[in-house]
From TrEMBL, chains A, B:
Species of provenance: Phytoactinopolyspora halophila
Protein name, UniProt field: Transcriptional regulator
NCBIfam families linked to this entry: HTH_metalloreg
InterPro entries listed in its UniProt record: ArsR-like_HTH, HTH_ArsR_DNA-bd_dom, WH-like_DNA-bd_sf, WH_DNA-bd_sf
GO molecular function annotation: DNA-binding transcription factor activity
Domain HTH arsR-type: 1-95
Any matching Pfam family: HTH_20
SUPFAM superfamilies listed in its UniProt record: Winged helix' DNA-binding domain
Residue ranges of the TM segments: none
DNA sequence: CATTGGTGCAACCGCAGAGTTGCATTTCCC
DNA sequence: GGGAAATGCAACTCTGCGGTTGCACCAATG
């Protein structure tokens, strides 16, 4: 309801990369930092960091501002928050759905197919 | 704190793909369904669906069980839920961090660097 | 003004993953 | 038994993306 699929998509893609998550951790710790600084903390080149920061920025997870000759980035919690809500909503919806199905399966009608066996591996 | 980085990683990767999200939606709606059935609802081949289901299963987002000659899948909300908590925790941590930095920047000490200008684009 | 530290830009590489097709195999059902 | 429906397996293609390197460009500073 609250946020749209597409925005969530960009956030999920942004967060799916482990380097990007490390980058966010570093940024959150530093408060604010430049691409060069961050590249010093991770085992990748500055250019790689720049590219990552670009996708993070497009997901709204970081903000940047120029200060003299350097560009400082800082973290933005908002999209993370709305994504969390999106996930929680979805989990709740699934739960409701499963509950409804279980009720139907156990009580009134004939069962056309059984529940899948619990197949942990 | 609650769940480990690696598990979250697999969930995020699984959710990052739009086809996989559609697949989960379809599955949640159907209650349970086979790869063949699902392939009928999405614009991809059955084999593609099978591969997606494999990564979803490894992320714990679906469960499957054999019923005669067909394999039925159903959705599992738990990992979604813990991921949501993970994101929310992180967002909160960032918020605290930003607050702390703002306090430091405004009050006691000299400011070594200014806040980045608000650069929405 | 020349140097130096920080960015921006572009080309390039390698690989994983999303997708396909074809075929073998199992199981249901007449 | 013998199709027909569903799954399993394998090989293959192709695009995207994470990463690098090299160089040009700016701006602070002695």
């Amino acid at each position: 309801m609250s946020v749209d699929e597409h925005e969530i998509g960009t956030v999920l893609v942004a967060l799916a990369d482990p380097t990007r998550r490390e980058l966010l951790d570093a940024l959150a710790e530093e408060g604010q930092a430049s691409a060069t600084t961050l590249a010093g903390r991770l085992p990748v080149s500055r250019q790689a960091v720049v590219k990552h920061l670009r996708v993070l920025e497009e997901a709204g997870l970081v903000r940047y501002g120029r200060l003299g000759r350097e560009v400082l980035y800082e973290v933005r919690p908002a999209p993370l928050d709305s994504s969390a809500r999106w996930l929680a909503e979805r989990a709740a919806a699934w739960d409701r759905r499963l509950e409804a199905i279980k009720r139907v399966a156990e009580n009134p009608p004939a069962r056309p197919s059984d529940k899948p066996a619990d197949h942990e591996h």
